[in-house]
Amino acid sequence: MNSTKQFICLNGVMQESDKPAVSHTNRAFCYGDALFETIHANGTRLQFFPHHYRRLTNHMSILKMMQPNGFSQENLEAHIVRLLNKNRLLKGARIRLCVFRNSGGYYTPASNESSFLIEAVPIEHDLYALNKKGLRVEIYKELKKAVNFFSNMKTSNSLLFIMAGLKKTETGAGDMIILNDRGGLCEGISSNLFIVKGGELFTPSLSEGCVAGIMRSQILRIAREAGYKCHETALYENDLEKADELFLCNAIAGIRWVVAWEQKRYYSKTAAQLTEALNLDAFGKAN
After folding, report:
1. Are 23 and 103 in contact (CB under 8 A)?
2. CA–CA gap between residue 151 and residue 155 (Å, rounded)
């Protein structure tokens, strides 16, 4: 970690990261009334930022949040780059961009005006790096994800994923697969899910309740450009039995391959090929 003083950006203003930035009446804190994006940066280059911005503003519109003043893609990118430079994050970094409705009201907001907060921290890899040791996953069965209006969004209401994370810690698993309320496979704790079977890719469709992941959409695009047949569909536990490969993906880690679920073992050939293609697409070079 950088030993120099670190900063965050609140509504375009840089503030020291160890000083209070928001009030106890903040609606993200009180009611989970917030959306967020996690973005990969390499130096001051932001990966897939137009896609993150489009998803965030679309979901803000659905939740009736007004955009803060100057909340353009260009201005936000400039704020992020400035923060990266100020924190001296010149290699791999994780950006968290949170938008929350301004304080006021109880369940019924006093207004739909909103604010944004940007954080930036270093990460281990500059490029997307496939994990050397495959993950062992389990299915989280104690709670299921409701398929509804909010399912595809990244909101600050994350209790389901927190409980799954606690279960992961208890069991020593590398990740947990979350089910939807129809009994279908949905996603990992912070990742979308892909199955490889017979050389074809399968992933839960958005109608199955998974987050509309930015990396999910990029993997689908890159895989199709490479000649893979890709299917967005309903998947179930028996599909894990039939799969040749299983991997998870998100905007920060890229692709993480799974080696085992129960007694089933998986390969990593397609995950490795797609990671190389992803790095070429995002950075113009392989890891």
Report:
1. yes
2. 9
Model pTM above 0.90: yes
Structural domains in the chain (count): 2
Mean pLDDT estimate for the chain: 96
Tell me the C-alpha distance between 178 and 187, whole Å: 5
Q: What is the DSSP letter of 67?
A: P
Neighbours of 199 (CB within 10 A): 12
Query: How far apart (Å, rounded) are the C-alpha atoms in residues 244 and 258?
Result: 11
CATH code for the domain in which residue 235 is found: 3.20.10.10
Q: Is 245 left (phi over 0), alpha (psi -120 to 50) or beta?
A: beta
Q: Give yes or no: residues 268 and 159 share one domain.
A: yes
Q: Quick one: tokens of 153? A: 């969004």
Band the pLDDT of 1: cuts 50, 70, 90.
very low
